[in-house]
Amino acid sequence: MSWEWSHTNEAYQNAREQLNQVSDNDLRIIFGEWWAHAHREDRDTVGKPGLSLYQEGRNLAQNLQPWTLAEFIWKRMSKFRTCDNGGHRAWACPYGCDPHKVPFDPVRLNG
């Protein structure tokens, strides 16, 4: 079950900062998921398997900087506005994969 975002501006800033802490590899995976999700109903991709669209996104992501990937993902997240039941973690991907969620809590610094 999921909820729609309904948080403070500070919580959104925290989630965005948490997204910026995600590994480059995970950003590429999430980008691929959003790419496939965004293009699954395009006229030019009808009938194209979702996995092919995902791989297309992953290949494109290899040539993009992490901050560019995070910005793309944040825009998609902000439009989708989905979080866990209870509102604790924002979905960074369209499917709510547990490893692809970021908390609305402040970033904790190591050390």
Overview of the structural elements:
The protein is mainly α and 111 residues long. The protein has one domain (2-103). It is 50% helix and 11% strand. The protein is built from 4 helices and 4 strands. The chain has helices spanning 9-20, 24-39, 50-61, 66-80; strands at residues 2-4, 82-84, 89-91, 101-103. The protein has a two-stranded antiparallel sheet. A two-stranded antiparallel sheet has the order 3-4. The relative contact order is 0.24. The mean pLDDT is 88.
Structure at a glance:
By secondary structure, this protein is mainly α. The chain contains four helices and four strands, in the order βααααβββ.
Helical stretch tally: 4
Largest sheet: 2 strands, antiparallel
Number of domains: 1
Helix content class: 40-55%
Describe the global form: globular
Report strand order across the widest sheet.
1-2
Indicate the low-confidence ranges by residue numbers.
none
Number of strands: 4
User: Average pLDDT, to the nearest integer?
Assistant: 88
Structural class by secondary-structure content? mainly alpha
The topology string of helices and strands comes to EHHHHEEE
Span from first to last CA? 35 Å
Fraction of residues in β-strands? 5-15%
**Rg from alpha-carbon coordinates:** 14 Å
Secondary-structure map:
Layout (H helix, E strand, L loop, with lengths): L1 E3 L4 H12 L3 H16 L10 H12 L4 H15 L1 E3 L4 E3 L9 E3 L8
Antiparallel strand pairs: 1-2, 3-4
Helix pairs in contact: 2-3, 2-4
